Amino acid sequence: MIAAAVFFYLFSAVAVASAFMVIASRNPVHSVLFLILTFANVTGLFILLGAEFLGLLLIIVYVGAVAVLFLFVVMMLDVDFAELKKGALQYMPVGALVGLVLLAELVMIIGAWLAPAGVPRTVAAPIPPAAQITNTEALARVLYTDFVFYFQAAGLVLLVAMIGAIVLTLRHKPNVRRQDISRQVARNKEDVIELRKVPFRRGL
Amino acid sequence: MTAAAIFPALPLFLPELLLAGGALALLLIGAFAGPRSTAFVNGMTLLLLIVAGALVAMQPEGRTIAFNGAFVVDGFGRFMKVLALIGAAGALMLSFDDFRQRRLSAFEYPVLVLLSVTGMMVMISAGDLIALYIGLELQSLAIYVICAFDRDSTRSTEAGLKYFVLGALSSGMLLYGASLIYGFTGTVSFAGIAAAVTGAPHSGVIFGLAFLAAGLAFKMSAVPFHMWTPDVYEGAPTPVTAFLASAPKVAAVAITVRVLVGAFPGITGQWQQIIVFVSFASMALGAFAAIGQHNIKRLMAYSSIGHMGFALVGLAAGTEQGVYGVLLYMAIYVAMTLGVFACIVSMRRNGQPVEAISDLAGLSKQHPAMAYLFALLMFSLAGIPPLAGFFAKFYVFAAAIQAKLTLLAVFGILTSVVGAFYYLRIVKVMFFDEPKEALDPMPGAAKLVLALSSIVTVGYFVAPALLNVVAVAAAKTLF
Amino acid sequence: MYHAIVFLPLAGFLIAGLFGRIMGARASEIVTTSLLFVSAALSWVVFWQVAYQSGPVHVTIVNWMTSGGLAADWALKIDTLTAVMLVVVNTVSALVHLYSIGYMHEDPSRPRFFAYLSLFTFAMLMLVTADNLVQMFFGWEGVGLASYLLIGFWYEKPSANAAAMKAFVVNRVGDFGFLLGIFIVFVMTGSVAFDQIFPKAAEMAGKTFHFLGYDWNAMTIACLMLFMGAMGKSAQFLLHTWLPDAMEGPTPVSALIHAATMVTAGVFMVARLTPLFELAPTALVVMTVVGATTAFFAATVGLVQNDIKRVIAYSTCSQLGYMFVALGVGAFGAGVFHLFTHAFFKALLFLGAGSVIHACHHEQDMRNMGGLRKYIPYTMIAMLIGNLALTGFPYTAGYFSKDAIIESAFASHSPAATYAFLCVVIAALFTSFYSWRLFFMTFFGEPRWKHHDAHGHEDHASAAHGRDDHAHAGHGHGDHTPHESPMVMMIPLAVLSVGALVAGAVFAGSFIGDNYEQFWKGALFTAKDNHILHDIHHVPLWVKLSPMIMMILGFVIAWWFYVKNPALPKQLAADQPILYRFLLNKWYFDEIYDFLFVRPAKWIGSFLWKKGDGWLIDGFGPDGVSARVVDVARGAVRLQSGYLYHYAFAMLIGVAILVTWYLVGGAH
What we know:
Chain A: It is found in: Cell membrane. Chain A: Belongs to the complex I subunit 6 family. Chain A: InterPro entries: NADH_UbQ/plastoQ_OxRdtase_su6, Nuo/plastoQ_OxRdtase_6_NuoJ. Chain A: Keywords: Cell membrane, Membrane, NAD, Quinone, Transmembrane, Transmembrane helix. The complex is a heterotrimer of chains A (204), B (479) and C (668). Chain A has helices at residues 2-24, 28-49, 52-77, 81-88, 92-114, 135-143, 148-169, 181-186, 189-192. By secondary structure, chain A is an all-alpha fold. Among the domains of chain A are: 1-80, NADH-ubiquinone/plastoquinone oxidoreductase chain 6, subunit NuoJ (Four Helix Bundle (Hemerythrin (Met), subunit A)), CATH 1.20.120; 131-176. In chain A, α1 runs antiparallel to α2 and α2 (28-49) runs antiparallel to α3. The longest helix of chain A is centred in the first third of the chain and has 26 residues, at 52-77. Chain A starts with a helix and ends in a 12-residue tail after the last helix. In chain B, β3 (348-349) and β4 (352-353) form a beta hairpin. The longest helix of chain B has 32 residues, at 154-185. Chain C is mainly alpha-helical and 668 residues long. Chain C has two domains: 2-60 and 69-472 and 480-584, no CATH class; 590-666. The relative contact order of chain C is 0.08. Chains in contact: A-B, A-C, B-C. Chains B and C meet through α7, α9, α10 and α12 of B and α26 and α27 of C.
């Protein structure tokens, strides 16, 4: 158990530290890299908790797709974050104050939660032991049954996101020449090629 | 839950199913038929909204649940759903002509409206925090998109972006609050939370509640989470603003009432303070900030902030009487708002939309009927008897006084006096200022919406029982 | 008949006031004047019936108001006193109407003028026929209103507006007292009707009320308060300042309102309330002193005035003082008799002065007159008769009434009466002097108007008659020779001359003589031990002769100063500059009041206006609220910066506030 505790604190500490670095680093590329580090550590935490499916999903989806996409975007846009952050400094004192207040309050609450053990620690759907059923299977069993409503509704949310992206960005520019495969295939020699007899030294 | 368990519940979520399925079908039709299909999709969407409204109205009385309590059908929800559907249908009708003139017509718009309304219905019916969040996101995400629908306009895209970023922030807060509540109570279902939170709850729950309320207040555009409202209202295409001002407000108020009354009845005294504060601030800001406005859409933004403040007065009471007041308030608010936006949408000069209040100058001479009805709605918004707006305020203030929140009620009356100033200023501009070049005549759909709205505004005084009886029954199901 | 007397002037007012513009000036004049003549004729009939035949009449018109214990009818109480007043008011009013047709013929708003005149007459009739204090107050305020309107008739002139306001404001002081008096009487007797008050007067006399830690004699205080009202209306000492200024109005108005009728309302009121005043000896002493002082003071000021109307105005003031002396010493009949005769000769003098002014093209300064006897002989005769009556030439009207007052002042042996006797005798000398001074300056001596007539005329015409451009139809601008007034103006002069000559001789026996009881029939209450009207027959001979001597002395001095040796007055004025200026400036009353009341009032007013109203009420009330609303609105708008991070920050602060609220104070 000690090893588990050591790893828990290691992952947690690195996750928090790298999350801080995401917003603190001056170079946006570094920020994205720190974000990836955070994801990796959170994956470790998931696996420690026995949720290996979620952990691996995080690596595959977030690190493999989302974060890499971020990296491309950041590199392509070449945004000068230092310039953007300049104005924000003047709000630092107030922002820091508000943040500190919230942090202090959170600490108070967490402390109050840890101190008395009377708070119910009921869990609605505990993770079944790995010996009986795999993590993935356990998820799959409820996803289309108990949680079909959430699942479908979430699907609609993603659909909206897709429609939105298309609506807001897709443009049919009339002057752009596009490849039209069916037209290419349907072309034949007779329609597009005309042979002319050109008279000598006179041109067309 | 198995198929055998799902199908008996089918009538409960049939309206939502119809809307979602309809949206998918219309999306396919539009995608394959192209821009030609826009009119058809528009018409079908309107039809779907109406049919869904009828289905909701025909659902069984009393409270029934589905999906392990994630989906609740009761009188309260049905009342609010019908309102949201009416608001969406009205706003959609206003969009037909406007979008055609702006060359914005696209089949995606009605589909997005449909999906957004689906989200609202999920939200209104939510029985736990997860359904709440998914519904809220479904609703919001579609609205972010339609705010930026006029993508060639800087203001429109700016509005969409602002709303999106701030909405993400508010969603974050809401989620944070929800996770705290889950952490401290061990359940996400409202009923479970209500059972867990009694007496003197752990401060973590209240902490979570504060964050949750902040997220919901953002959706209601209540102060201090209102900042997006004027910019978005102004920037978005006018029919979208009309939609924003009506249906989502209903949904947000509905879910706020349901969460607070349904999940935290044990600590009414605690959340009352949040609502009182938010209500105070909203009424004050709505009254004062609107005074300096020159753009009528911006003015309506502050107006709606103020009206949310008034509606929350009823919620602050925390009683059945108060919820009854909220229901009535929202019903009358939706009717008035649609009418006002029917007029605003029709504000065009030589085909170009105009939005300044001064553009209304001399309207009484050019379009007397429109001017008189507009003035009527303004009087109603200001809360002048015997128009419906007065009774709306009356019921919430009465509930507040019964709940010993006299100070709040008095403050509400004072701010409504201040608010009357800017409503009456519009009337003054229409009737007493030197006319400018005439506005274009109103399109037919807008005329219809304005007429229906005016009938409700005036007719409520004649037959209040039609609405009151339903609202009383609806309020009862929450307690 | 009684209704007709009271309501014909009202009808005239309504017709001329409402339809004057439509039917034109001439028709308005004819309607109002003829109605007034009918009314005047009826008044004489009533006077004959009531005074010499059947006795008092009481006509109830309508129950006016009933509120708790307060019941006031609108009724006509017509006894001898009222009948006398009816005769005075309607006769003078009718003559003034007629006279105005000539005097005002250049004025474009004649319908308005005649409407006001008739309104005044109606209000005055309401006053004199009142059968209760409330109705009397109604008439009292009605004449005040009409007076205000008529003084300010030429409202383009700032001085006329100022004079109208002054008259109104000064009268408010008196009215305040009158109202308090009415209140006390109502509280003490539970009624405002004369018929119910008078029987209770005796029991009221003993009562006291507690106020400011003292027990006050109710009757004394009530009578003093009522007398204060009379002082305001009758321009008595301290409240007299409005009367000379009121001469800004057209001259017929001065004759009607400020000589014959309205200013005597105070005298009438005291006479009407004699059952109360007779039981308040302190009030009577005060009245005597005030009246005597007024008589003396006004006469001294009249000595040096140069404006022909102001001389007569101060004379009026002085004569009113005589009346109050008579009332104060208990010779009520003499007081009312002097009121009666004074109405004739003072109206005569004013109308005569008006004729002079008319002749001189609205020149009012006597220094610019002189030698007019050749040009306007008839006016001169009228003025002569008026002067004789005023100064008390034997067997003219003034002789009977004025001598009776002087004798009764002597016959009443109290210290106050002795003071009054001295005052009125000296005042008689002054009266004679200023009357003849006026006469000589106007009609004798070198014509002073020729030298600077063009200049003086233009100046004064525009000053006195600001509104009309004085076209002088019929006599062109080159001709400024004084001219005799038209017939419509001369007839009233003739009628009043007759009155001034014979009214005294005819009615002396009734008013103050042997037929006293039969004539008054109890309209004037006299206490059982009040025998003053008998005592005056037993005063020493020198007392009886003193007015005559004073009159002759005054005449001689005036003749010496203004006919024989015209340089003397200026020299005298130069020798005694302080006294001269003191008198010329009317004892500096206007200046003192300006310092004592007007400036502090203005200061308080401007303080309340700027600080109280502007700063406090407006600042925190309407303006403040609206300004704060705008400020708040501006602030709220400024919050709306448009920057995303501002908005996000506002949300974070909001949530922080909510959370902190709970953790610190809200929860648990």
